[in-house]
UniProtKB/TrEMBL annotation:
Protein name: Lysine (K)-specific demethylase 7Ab
Domain JmjC: 202-358
Organism from which the protein derives: Cyprinus carpio
Cofactor(s) the protein needs: Fe(2+)
Low complexity bias locations: 643-660
GO molecular function: histone H3K27me2/H3K27me3 demethylase activity; histone H3K9 demethylase activity; zinc ion binding
Entry similarity comment: Belongs to the JHDM1 histone demethylase family. JHDM1D subfamily.
Basic residues bias (residue ranges): 475-486
Length: 731
């Protein structure tokens, strides 16, 4: 016979199986279980029932019996009021005593600001360490419903069937109920108890269209900036909360989950914040208080040096920084909107708060969703930020360096247990496409580079390196060309098994020594020796280019002739695209050889680089012949380079992979990348370029100013070589 399949047991008047998501209550007579929604018993109301009779038993045994109140100062109001037990937080007695207390004014720590002043740039410069109050929300970029927006309107936009979390304030206990039931309670003439709604997140409802969060919260948010669209984990939505509280609602002292910063705006009504600064001592006291068995009987504001009282009235927006310990009293019926966001300014404090939550064994329901996952995403992006800062020859902001160091420690601690244990089920939030150990190693390497020796502000200042912009647009952070180039270099370095080739710095120093030596040579030196040295050096460069894809260095030497005034000179054209040096010399001799003015401009550019004067042939006819000879020598050199680049050996292949193939009638040009700024072309053939020339007007330099104090090519090359003997070098 075929065995019968087990059938689920049915309950309630609806005869449905057990559903873990629905509140149920047991009848003390028939012992059957009933859905609260089927027998019209709310979850928060069930705790007041002493003996419950279901609808069937009610007809035979009478109505349910309610608990008798014996006190007004304890969460369990059935305890006898014999004066032996202290007042607990949230009770009516507690609220009366709280309102009678005196506190230091919040004006001592509150920053009153215009919304237009609260920018990411301002907070990055001055820090985000104290609460900020703004009285005109429009200047913040904040958009909300009008002040007459009601609780019924919330139901209309969100939906009455949405199940929400509600706090029974007198018991400081959480329960669930439908929004429609809360609206009915809110408008009832007699409210049997104080209920408070503080966690209605409505990003997935129609009401979301009515709210635009403050610009500062949007621009700084980790979730908005770093959470990938293709993440395996669901995106956290914590930016749009609607808070609806009746008079005397109270939320005890807490730190917002994950150490998030928070914005509050009171649409109507009034809230009172009790604020405590997150000093190390206060945080230690807070953790001790949170883990104590009598937490609700101790007012935490009395355990610290100062607890500030801040009244937030209708139309005011309050921004609370990371880690601030605060309690909230609703002094009159109130509707407020708010949101939480993680950011880069206080990474260390955010991580400290999260680790405290772990030690306190905070349930996941009350923690920031996928906090560890977003930290991995942030770490990956900040690694790119540090690399780009190094490429741009500038120091990251101090707060970012400190934050990355704290992040490295946290990531390593999170990863260690997963490595030591045989994990049978997912216990880590490491995204699949991230190599955690490698990421930690690369971040550590970048931080060590910044802290190594004198690789701080002194080195940066000596090399003309400026501080990085604190912020970058998403497009700048994700520059495809830059990342692709870096990835190719990293892959080549990782997979190379050939003998160690000379570094860029070795090649650069070898060539530069030759350059500087010839610049100082007397007039009677033999040209043959120069040409011999040049050929040897050029051949070496081509050979190394084959072995190292990381070689961004290209040197071209052009030997000139003495003029008829007896002044001997050597023209040296060093075309370099080396990001770390700040020396950017672009497109010399890159135009058609048939253009006389262009060739003269090229000559002027090369002479300027060598720190020499140049006179136009038309201004001094006696020098025209020597200029013609000089042009001839330059063209000979171009032909020589053509022959070096057109061979069939492996060196020519490596060289040609980095050069541009000239069209018919064009002179061959060097392959290089355009850098942020460059030396300008000659202003006039008879004039030397300005010491601080304007940038070339092209897309790569548009709208950017040249760095101050730009030295001559010879001075910069000498300084770089001097520094390179003692300091780490950007690559």
């Amino acid at each position: 016979p075929v065995p019968k399949m087990a059938t689920a047991q049915l309950y309630c008047v609806c005869r449905q199986p057990y559903d873990v998501s629905r509140f149920m209550i047991e009848c003390d007579i028939c012992k059957d279980w009933f859905h609260g929604s089927c027998v019209e018993v709310e979850e928060h109301h069930a705790v007041d029932i002493d003996v419950y009779h279901c609808p069937n038993c009610d007809a035979h045994h009478g109505p349910s019996l309610m608990k008798k109140r014996r006190n007004w100062h304890r969460h369990d109001y059935t305890e006898p009021d014999d004066g032996s037990k202290p007042v607990q937080a949230g009770t009516s007695v507690f609220v009366r005593e709280l309102q009678a207390r005196t506190f230091p004014s919040g004006d001592e720590i509150l920053q009153q600001m215009h919304g237009s002043q609260v920018t990411q740039r301002y907070l990055e410069r001055h820090g985000f360490r104290y609460p900020i109050a703004v009285h005109k929300m429009e200047e913040l970029g904040l958009r909300l419903p009008p002040p007459d927006f009601s609780v019924k309107d919330v139901e209309r936009y969100v939906g009455g069937d949405k199940v929400i979390d509600v706090i029974d304030v007198a018991r400081q206990a959480d329960s669930k109920m439908k929004l429609s039931a809360f609206v009915k309670y809110y408008y009832s003439p007699q409210r049997p108890k104080v209920l408070n709604v503080i966690s209605l997140e409505f990003s997935d409802t129609k009401m979301s269209e009515l709210v635009v969060v403050p610009d500062i919260a949007q621009k700084m948010s980790w979730v908005e900036n770093y959470w990938p669209d293709d993440s395996y984990f669901p995106k956290p939505f914590v930016q749009k909360y609607c808070l609806m509280g009746v008079k005397d609602s109270y939320t005890d002292f807490h730190i917002d989950f994950g150490g998030t910063s928070v914005w509050y705006h009171v649409l109507w009504g009034e809230k009172v914040f009790y604020l405590i600064k997150p000093t190390p001592a206060n945080l230690a006291l807070y953790e001790e208080w949170s883990s104590s068995p009598n937490q609700s009987e101790v007012f935490f504001g009395e355990k610290v040096d100062k607890c500030y009282k801040c009244v937030v009235r209708q139309g005011t927006t309050l921004l609370i920084p990371t880690g601030w310990i605060h309690a909230v009293l609703t002094s009159q019926d109130c509707m407020a909107f708010g949101g939480n966001f993680l950011h880069n300014l206080n990474i260390g404090m955010q991580l400290r708060c999260y680790e405290m939550e772990r030690r306190l064994k905070t349930p996941d329901l009350f923690k920031f969703p996928y906090f560890e996952a977003i930290c991995w995403y942030v770490a990956k992006n900040l690694l790119e930020t540090l690399k780009e800062s190094r490429d741009d020859n500038c120091l990251p902001p101090v707060y970012l360096i400190k934050g990355v160091k704290a992040l490295i420690t946290a990531l390593r601690n999170w990863l260690t247990p997963a490595v030591k244990e045989v994990v049978t089920e997912p216990s880590s939030e490491v995204p699949d496409h991230i190599r955690p150990s490698h990421l930690i190693k690369m971040l550590t390497k970048e931080i060590q580079y910044l802290e190594n020796g004198n690789c701080g502000s002194k080195l940066m200042k000596s090399q003309g390196i400026s501080a990085c912009p604190s912020t970058r647009s998403a497009h700048e952070r994700r520059s495809h060309a830059r990342r692709t180039a870096r990835r190719l270099r990293d892959q080549d370095h990782h997979h190379s098994h050939s003998p160690k080739a000379p570094s860029n710095l070795d090649i650069f120093e070898q060539h530069t020594q030759e350059v500087l030596k010839r610049l100082e040579m007397g007039p009677n030196e033999e040209d043959a020796s120069l040409n011999l040295k040049f050929n040897k050096v050029s051949t070496a460069s081509a050979a190394v280019a084959e072995r190292s894809l990381d070689n961004d260095l290209r040197l071209v030497l052009c030997n000139g002739q003495p003029n008829n005034a007896g002044e001997h000179f050597r023209v040296v054209c060093v075309c370099v695209c080396l990001k770390c040096t700040g020396l950017k010399l672009n497109h010399i001799c890159s135009e058609s050889a048939t253009s006389p003015s262009t060739e003269e401009d090229a000559i002027q550019g090369m002479l300027s680089m060598a720190g020499l004067l140049y006179s136009h042939p038309s201004e001094d006819p006696s020098k025209g012949e020597h200029h013609a000879k000089l042009k001839h020598r330059i063209q000979e050199h171009k032909n020589f380079m053509d022959s070096q680049g057109s061979g069939s050996n492996s060196s020519s292949e490596a060289w040609s992979s980095h050069t541009h193939s000239p069209a018919h009638g064009e002179s061959p040009t060097l392959g290089y990348q355009y850098c942020e700024t460059s030396l300008s072309p000659p202003l006039h053939p008879s004039k030397r370029p300005a010491s601080n020339p304007p940038p070339i007007s092209n897309q790569a330099t548009k709208g950017k100013r040249p760095k101050k104090g730009m030295a001559t090519a010879k001075q910069r090359l000498g300084k770089i070589l001097k520094l390179s003997r003692h300091k780490p070098f950007f690559v």
